[in-house]
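Whether sequence alone determines local backbone shape is best considered at the level of individual chains. For completeness, the protein is quoted in full, as a sequence line and a line of structure tokens:
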Amino acid sequence: MGLRFTVKELSDFLDAEFPQVGGQFTIEALEEMAATVRLNVGEQHLRPGGTVSGPSIFALADVAIYIAVLAMIGREALAVTTNCSIDFMRKPAAGVDLIAECRLLKLGRVLAVGDVLIRSEGQEAPVARASLTYSIPPKR
């Protein structure tokens, strides 16, 4: 099937379609059925205690799968999350970005299923693991 975007092309597409999250995420790498995405952790992502909030970690998992799906299917802004299960395993390191490594397990005509492992930059132990399903709209 092959990639439909380069990192720059997909970054530009996301900036145009979702300007409200501009600068929060960086696509580190794209491979067939895989993506590595960084959450550029800022004050808006922190909760009391100086750690990254759960909603920010979820957002990273969700965006990582979305990026992996788009990289494979092309310009389809209306692909949406239909299911997510996330395990928060340990407190993220304070003051560092989070890195999500995403693998698509299935990419069909209607559904995409993937797993995401999230780590604090420079740490080996994962802070969260998520499984997500995306709905891909039918071709018009």
Remarks:
- Residues 5 and 115 are 21 Å apart (CA to CA).
